[in-house]
Amino acid sequence: MSATSGELRIVNPANEQTIATMPPAGLEEADEAIARAAAAGPAWRAVSPGDRARLLRRFAEAVDGAIEELAALEVANAGHTIANARWEAGNVRDVLAYYAGAPERHSGRQIPVTGGVDLTFYEPLGVVGIIVPWNFPMPIASWGLGPALAAGNTVVLKPAELTPLTAVRLAELALEAGIPEGVFEVVVGPGSVVGWRLVTHPAVRKVCFTGSTSVGKAIMAGCAEQVKRVTLELGGKSANVVFADADLERAAATAPYAAFDNAGQDCCARSRILVEESVYERFMELLESAVKNVVVGAPTDPSSEMGPLISADQRDVVAGYVDGSTVAFRGNAPEGPGFWYPPTVLAPVGRDETAWREEIFGPVVAVVPFEDEADAIQLANDTEYGLSGSLWTRDIGRALRVSRALETGALSVNSHSSVRYWTPFGGFKQSGLGRELGPDALHGFSELKNVFISTEG
Ligand code: NAD
């Protein structure tokens, strides 16, 4: 994206060609969208639970009918591999379908009291602002959108300037499915203007932010001004802990995909590999052949496992982290146009080195040996982040002990599972605040009201 000409220029990161231009929205357009969403609120919350559920199911079906179209847009706009992009569009459908089951079940309680009846109700918040980063434009949009709409809120969504195309199409599909005008608005414009307006506008009652920790902190501080509800899904530097008793072949074969999926532009990337000293050499041998086998190529090719980075700027950031570190080995990347960067393994790496401590957000993983279980836990937790992680061991006691000891929100044992929409997701420490997805997500989009009705007199 470039805004120098006054237009947003949307670029295909695999070949650097401009695929679309659009005028960026400013403050006025943001205010108009918020006003439309606020105006649509009363009618939307009055839609009966069954009808709201039906409309969300129809929205899910409309997305299902557009999977190939949405996937092709993301391949062109974000450089995602076609296999990943199909999964992402399917994830939007599934999130909408899952939360379509929620409106009729979003019930309060009747609590025993004397002298009357006590009831609780879940009330919608009003307008919810959803701010989305460029790395997973579709799923992240839907993780806020599905439960927010199901709970009776209206939504203004701001996609990242680099990747707005699927969000714009999703808003059209919502209308085609019968979701009323104003219930789901998309505004494409700069974060500092349109995104920030969602923070400062008093009609927006909650901000769901996914992005960098630095912007997330500013958003949290801004929301404090109005005691505005806020959910933050921020950065990560997750650990992949490999114990000596693990299935080393499997751990090594899967480690590249846990770090390099989406070219490493994944908040859940297991970008720190911790290996028990006694098996370090063997693990590195296995890892080298696995890394060299990662298929990096045209995102449109169904056999591609990794595409380009999102932009030239992002490639510079990634290269900056690698300069000055020791590269143990690398995979391949195409030559020529496109923001390509090869899968890269850093080792040996010092425990205080920047590349070990900071989120790189590119296909770079660092490997450090550890002595024993206590050292592994200390090393894994020695970070300001705590989003995801994996651990590999055949010892079930250790698997449970270490799972409980790791300060992280989403952990996989003997796997690197991706986020499941029916289980909760979110970070410890500076990786975030609040949880998305899972059976309780509507609580984050509702105010709990208590009503006492006297039966006396
Ligand atoms: P970013 O913070 O630069 O931008 C994210 C979004 O915020 C964009 O839409 C941007 O326009 C908007 N924005 C920027 N400045 C703003 C401001 N002052 N006010 C309001 N909105 C503003 O992040 P990015 O570079 O797009 O994404 C990468 C980051 O996102 C990484 O740190 C990654 O770890 C994180 N991320 C986290 C999760 C998670 O679930 N925890 C998921 C994906 C990405």
Describe it for me?
This protein is α/β, with parallel strands linked by helices. The protein folds into 2 domains: 8-234 and 431-453, Aldehyde Dehydrogenase, Chain A, domain 1 (3-Layer(aba) Sandwich); 239-420, Aldehyde Dehydrogenase, Chain A, domain 2, CATH 3.40.309. It has helices at residues 27-46, 49-65, 67-78, 82-99, 137-150, 165-176, 191-200, 213-224, 248-260, 280-292, 312-322, 354-357, 373-381, 396-405, and strands at 8-11, 18-22, 110-111, 116-124, 127-131, 154-158, 184-186, 204-210, 229-233, 239-242, 272-276, 327-330, 344-346, 364-370, 388-392, 410-413, 432-433, 446-454. The strands form 4 sheets. A 7-stranded mixed beta sheet has the order 12-13-14-11-10-15-16, sandwiched between helices. Strand 13 (344-346), helix 12 and strand 14 form a beta-alpha-beta unit. Helix 2 (49-65) packs antiparallel against helix 4 and helix 3 (67-78) packs across helix 4. The model has no long low-confidence stretch (mean pLDDT 97). Bound molecules: nicotinamide-adenine-dinucleotide. Residues 131-136, 140, 158, 160-161, 191-192, 195-196, 210-212, 215, 218-219, 233-236, 267, 359, 361, 387, 427, 431-432 line the site of nicotinamide-adenine-dinucleotide.
